[in-house]
Amino acid sequence: MTPDINNLLTDITSSNILDRRYQWTVFRAFNVYRLILALLLIGLLLLDEHSRFFGRANSLLFLGTTTAYIALVVLALVGSYRRRPLLRVQAQFQTIVDLFALCLLMHASGGIGSNLSILMVTAVAASGILLPLYSALATASLAFFILLGYTFYTIAADFAATGGGPLWSGRFLVYLQSYNMEWDRLGILGASCFIAALLTYTLAERSRRTEALARQRSQQLLEMAQLNQAIVQQLQSGIIVVDRSARIKLMNDTAHRLLDHPESAEGVALEALSLPLRQRLNQWLSTGAHSARPFRQVGHLPELTVSFNEFGDRRSKDTLIALEDSSLVAQRLQQLKLAALGRMTASIAHEIRNPLSSIGHAAQLLQESPTVNPGDRRLGQIVHDNARRANKIITTVLELSRREGAKPENLALRPWLEEFQRDFLSGHSQYQPEMDLVVDPPDLLICFDPLHLHQVLWNLCNNACVHGAAKDGPARLRLAAGQDTADAGPFLDVHDEGPGIAAADDSKVFEPFFTTKTQGTGLGLYISREICEANNAHLQYIRPAAGGSCFRITFAKANQPKENPQWMSALR
User: Fold this and answer.
1) 459 with 424: CB under 8 angstroms?
2) Model pTM score
3) Cα–Cα distance between 437 and 385 in angstroms, integer?
4) Which of 34, 154, 248, 459 is the most buried (most CB within 10 A)?
């Protein structure tokens, strides 16, 4: 996943933070509008000294109110950047200040009939953007009552100036009815305030919901893009996407490794990355046929097979290039062939086992016949020995195909090896080898199936006795277990002092049916290695500097969770 998608996804998922940032931005923008409006009003007051469109009734009150209003707006701007106190508190306080300040400015400019009365509607509308619905309606109600009180105050002041008497007299009620225009204007302004509060709140709420929905959709798209990029990066195939001009738009890690290009390749021309790849792309674009012949980017890199696929619309067509290591493809095909061969071999082995047993039994009866001469008896012995050897091979193959999965468990290696040593030496009482046992540290733990470990170690020690015996005495074996570092897994070496394995045969010792003895099956080391792999361990041959042979089992650490791969499933 690229850093851009990471940053976008982090920002979008922080929806509450984005909402607060948006609201503080709107609040700050409205404060800037208030400041500009106040400065304009002062400028109009100072420049328009003759007609006095604003502040004609009381210029000093107009100037003082505007100056105090500017100071409060500056404080609100500072509070918006410090975000103290809460936004709702600041917005509510700002609305109340606006309403009373505009009422004073209207009074200084001639009353409710001045053009400043429309600004009351603007203040109420701003509250509908920043405040909840009940607060916006309360603000509209406050604006209406302020206008109502101011209108009543103005009419009462005019009535008192005419000497009409007390306000509770009937003459005052008649006087109130004479101001029909003022009451109509008040009704229009009051209705406008409520309509503005409802309308701005509705539009702001719809905008917030639309933004939240867009943010949710954007988050889903970015998560999908994140998933797609993670999948592309984890693919075992090399993936390259180029545009119409063959410039690279996307290249996963596998493609970087296969083409030996560690640096970022976005925006690089394809021919600068790989000229053979560019030539195959041109061939595919002109003919529509894929080249079946693999190519090699550099001498030490593997051969690659390539396929192309075009996607996109007519205006922006991109090409997907898939790179495959031809050796891995061949290896997968070989594994499929071996799996099929294993199933067929198991079937054949099962079918010929009974006839082979009959041949061996007939050869044994022929040997025991009193009428057979020594020469024929010797031939019968040869038939019997080879039938027994063939039967042993068949038994091993059938065991290999039917083997159950490994059941690893934690084992204390030293006591287990001591028990194995006694068992192995008692089973070779006629030609008993010398066996040394070293475990460092003594409390070394491994994770392995005990029955599988017994089979592997018995096979390795038996091979050491057969192939590693000295000419003048029994075989000398040394079992040495240890652990190189804390991070590495424990190991067990089976070492003998015999003539060793020929250097030319090092790579063949684990191949099935490879043996240097005429009586051997060639399956012992192969089966031992497969058993180790089934227990998350590894069996390898190490050529000692002092001579002899050494086979090392590297175990998985005992404190790690283990998988139980069914290594024999390909043969079933």
Assistant:
1) no
2) 0.45
3) 36
4) 34
d(CA 530, CA 537): 9
Place of tokens 């101001």: 179
Output the six-digit token pair for 133.
């619905």
Coil, helix or strand for 478? strand
Q: Rounded to an integer, what distance in angstroms lies between the CA atom of residue 302 and that of residue 300?
A: 7
Per-residue pLDDT at 325: 81
Task: Provide the token pair at 21.
Answer: 């940032």
Which pLDDT does position 273 carry in this prediction? 87
| Beta bridge mates, 319 | 242, 310
| Domains of the chain (ranges, CATH numbers) | 3-215 (no CATH), 236-328 (3.30.450.20), 329-402 (1.10.287), 409-571 (3.30.565.10)
Q: Which residue has the tokens 């099956």?
A: 521
**Residue 406, by phi and psi: left (phi above 0), alpha (psi -120 to 50) or beta?**
beta
Task: Centre a 10 Å sphere on the Cβ of residue 360 and count the other Cβ atoms it contains.
Answer: 19
**Average pLDDT for residues 113-125, to the nearest whole number?**
83
Cβ within 8 Å of residue 83, ≥6 positions away: 24
Q: What is the Cα–Cα distance from 566 to 402, expressed in whole angstroms?
A: 11
Distance CA 89, CA 130 (A): 11
- Please state, as a whole number, how many other Cβ atoms lie within 10 Å of the Cβ of residue 309: 12
User: What is the residue-wise DSSP string for 245-309?
Assistant: T-BEEEE-HHHHHHTT--S--TT-BHHHH-HHHHHHHHHHHHH-----S-EESSTTSPEEEEEEE
Tell me 556's DSSP state: B
**240 has which bridge partners?**
251, 321
Rounded CA separation 261/511 (Å):
36
The answer to whether the beta carbons of residues 140 and 130 sit under 8 Å apart is: no
**Closest listed residue to residue 556, CA positions, set 531, 538, 529:** 538
Range of weakest confidence among 156-170, 181-195, 265-279: 156-170
Q: Which residues contact 357 (CB under 8 A, 6 or more apart)?
A: 387, 391
Task: Give the separation between CA 572 and CA 570, rounded to whole angstroms.
Answer: 6
**Which pLDDT score, from 0 to 100, does residue 571 have?**
33
Residue 251 phi/psi, 5° resolution? -155, 120
Alpha helices (H) along 162-274: 170-177, 180-234, 253-258, 270-273
Cβ atoms of 438 and 479 within 8 Å: the answer is yes
Q: Please state, in angstroms and rounded to a whole number, the distance separating the CA atoms of residues 115 and 189.
A: 12
